[in-house]
Amino acid sequence: MNLGIRAILYSARKWKKTLLVFFLLLAITTLVLSGLAIADAQEEQAEELRGVTGTSFTVERNLSTGGWTSGNGGSYSTQEFISDEMLQEIASVDGIAGYDASIVSMPYYFKETGDSVVTTGYTNSFYTYGSINTEYNDLFVSGRFELVEGSHITEDMTNGLIISRERAEQNGLEVGSKVVGINDPYTDDPEVDMEIVGIFEVVADKNDEATMYDASTMWDFSNYAFCSKAAMEAMCVNYGDGNKIQEADFYVTDAAQLESVINEVQSISSINWNNFIVTANDEVYQNISSSLSDTTALVTTLIIVITAVSMVLIILILSMSIRSRKRETGILLAVGIAKPAVILQYVLETLLIAVVAFPLAYLSSKQVAGTLGTLFGKAAENVIVTPEHFMLVAVVGGILLVAAVLVSSISTLRLKPKQILSQME
């Protein structure tokens, strides 16, 4: 009789054992496929994380290596400032997505009617960043502020202004409104014409522990403003070093490459790095990345444990089954059927079960994976079992099942037919 037919007939006759192995393979394969899908979702999340955590590095003046002098305003450092050329050189390094550098002051703004743009503070001054690219200002990158109308200030803007929705509504201003900025209206500081190009909304409370400390605690977030760097320089023209850049933030496209980007930046020979300090800002990425790595390790460990335990169970079940078939095995060997053919029959019996169990596990895992993924903090729709997962599990699973059959057959098939039959007498 053909060994394939013998395998089918035996599987049908021993249907209880067949069902036991079937459900075991179904459960194991479903769990392993779900685990692989969760691991892939974890990896995709990690990839996304590398580009969206606002990972950056700060370049600032190193006051400890500069000299000091005194003036009308007291002592001040003579250390060199960050120049526009220096910013351009650093920004040109591969891996840098964008940057922002600001000059901070507290100017006043006036409408075309001459009326002051009022705030909720005891003065009508705004805590203003004279920015190069507000999109990369920490307040926007961190999510504390969100631009809700208009556009961000960019490097090519010379007179743009962004204010909060609260102050815009309070003063009847909107995108396109013209204002005049004066650093100190009680002195001979120049008037600078500006146009509101954007309006932001305060998302986070400055007193919330989740936000970073800001030295300007006397200004509510709604009294913040952002203007073009050129406009701020024009307003602060009477203040010497007050209109120069002391630090800049550079954001990288891939958080995992932050260290290599910093190393490349510090290799720029035209910059005297003795005069500047470079600080990496990747705490958020490192914390989240560590958490994701722990979860990935846990998922991988579970897959390995499930596979190992399952292999042991399958080997035990097959060993018991093969030992119970000693007479059948002895007869087959006695009539001249070679041991490899007998083993092949056992293999076919197991693979016939797997051929049914694996596809059903693929279908069931599509339903189970999302539910299990939520236990690891994943959105169910992001945990997807793919055909690639199925092919991997089917191939590796098939190999492991063949190995299990071989291991289970060793104790019986190492005997000669006469020895096997004598043990059954």
TrEMBL record:
<keyword id="KW-1003">Cell membrane</keyword>
<keyword id="KW-1133">Transmembrane helix</keyword>
<feature type="transmembrane region" description="Helical">
    <location>
        <begin position="390"/>
        <end position="415"/>
    </location>
</feature>
<dbReference type="InterPro" id="IPR003838">
    <property type="entry name" value="ABC3_permease_C"/>
</dbReference>
<feature type="transmembrane region" description="Helical">
    <location>
        <begin position="297"/>
        <end position="318"/>
    </location>
</feature>
<feature type="domain" description="ABC3 transporter permease C-terminal">
    <location>
        <begin position="302"/>
        <end position="415"/>
    </location>
</feature>
<feature type="transmembrane region" description="Helical">
    <location>
        <begin position="330"/>
        <end position="363"/>
    </location>
</feature>
<dbReference type="InterPro" id="IPR050250">
    <property type="entry name" value="Macrolide_Exporter_MacB"/>
</dbReference>
<protein>
    <submittedName>
        <fullName>Putative ABC transport system permease protein</fullName>
    </submittedName>
</protein>
<dbReference type="Pfam" id="PF02687">
    <property type="entry name" value="FtsX"/>
</dbReference>
<dbReference type="GO" id="GO:0005886">
    <property type="term" value="C:plasma membrane"/>
</dbReference>
<keyword id="KW-0812">Transmembrane</keyword>
<keyword id="KW-0472">Membrane</keyword>
<dbReference type="GO" id="GO:0022857">
    <property type="term" value="F:transmembrane transporter activity"/>
</dbReference>
